[in-house]
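Re: the multi-chain job from yesterday

Posting the exact lines I submitted so nobody has to dig through the queue logs.
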Amino acid sequence: SYELTQPPSVSVSPGQTARITCSGDALPKKYAYWYQQKSGQAPVLVIYEDSKRPSGIPERFSGSSSGTMATLTISGAQVEDEADYYCYSTDSSGNLVVFGGGTKLTVL
Amino acid sequence: EVQLVESGGGLVKPGGSLRLSCAASGFTFSNAWMSWVRQAPGKGLEWVGRIKSKTDGGTTDYAAPVKGRFTISRDDSKNTLYLQMNSLKTEDTAVYYCTKPTCSGGSCYEGGWGQGTLVTVSS
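And the result, structure tokens for all chains:
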């Protein structure tokens, strides 16, 4: 089965840049998406198609992808950005969808 | 506005069955691919499976842990998505979300989410 691998946790101070990585063998051919989930809430899409930002998402959120790794970058992280972040993509066939294991971002 | 409302969750014994429903509104349900995503308590998101629209073949795909036990179906006349869960295991305990994939240029992501319904598998 296909897997996306994320670090379990990332910690930064307010105003610093947070980077969360996601590795997967099919990422050179498939887009990565990123979701933010705060406690008790449904996930919210923050990046789609590797690097595009949905309307309403702050500009400090950006995404990139190179080879088998996608990266979510939060430039100037704020306390309200504390959440779990999940990458999302498909296997090479496009038929099986997978979420990464999630990364807990702490901003303090 | 996309609205998805799940129902049918509850407590069930290991080996038992349960059927979840998802009432959809705010979009043309018959044209939409639909998915289920779950989240075990304190754990990450897990894609469960998907059903395509009938015009796209109406086929289903499932994650390995549920394949052969869970069945996704749809009733386009009722704008409702279903998840039939059989041979339930304790590890199936989770909040189950109904989602509406948004597709563009051959790539899709879960664009709309319901509020979720809790399924607890315990003796």
